[in-house]
What does this fold into?
Amino acid sequence: MTDGRRLVDGYRLVVFDLDGVIYLIDRPIPGAVEAVGRLHAEGRAVAYATNNASRRSSEVADLLTGMGVAARPEEVLTSAAAAAELLGDRYPAEAPVLVVGAEALRAEVRAVGLTPVTRAEESPVAVVQGYGPQVGWSDLAEAAVAIRAGAAWIATNTDRTLPSGRGPLPGNGALVAALRTALNRDPDVVVGKPSPELFATAARHAGAGRTLVVGDRLDTDIEGAVRAGLDSLLVLTGVSGVAELLAAVPEQRPTYVSENLAGLFDPAAVVRVPGPAEAAGWSAALRDGRVELSGAGRPLDALPALCAAAWSVAEPVSVRAASPEAELAFAALDLLAD
It folds into this structure.
């Protein structure tokens, strides 16, 4: 940031995505435990919003606490709970719902008074589909039969991938895509991000004051924040990288970018995007259909100028280094230059 203030001081509530921001699968991302602990020590409101439907809020809170992040179930908003709440509002008590996903999703369906089932012949009123590592062909087949018979189709989220220590792995969106192909139709409702409900709910719980959303994915976390009318911080510890950032459509553009959660507290570790075309020693301009970066400085400080140039045109553009320092910056930002 250019004014020397801490980013976090401008917000009452910080809402974190989990996978790719706080942890990768079951291991905390370096610095995340310390960052959340610092927020708690300062008395700041914290919430967690996750599209992962394989754990209940209490399980997520226990997982976080086990990693050293003190978390309460009421601070955790999951797409599984939101989907179950939607179904509970829509259907009478004990109505059968075919659940495709993990046991956590079944538990959320039971918690709202509905009856989880596994086969289409049990005449479910709806199919709810969430991520589960054991979901297989037979589960998708039962869902397809039930939906063709008239059951509503609710997806907890459509994340194409989920982050892991080995790189992105197939997410619920990949499984939804299989059903979409088989049925030649989209789900009736997608509950999780980028729909704004999870973030809007968190902001309502916090009351008055500004909310900052912190995420690692442009197509879910950041777009969800934009739809909810909230500021957002993209951290580069998960799925979306700088190349994807420069190609982002308007509804997926963050307010700020940081390499990690240090950007919440260190003004030098976060930048606002887009920024001036010439600043912090860098200059970016469109030349011959490419974004050309010249000058010298810290790699992160080049992002505001790069975003300003790349976002000034409708189509994604490639980048080119016009100085040796720019080549080093591209390497540090994992950008492939022409």
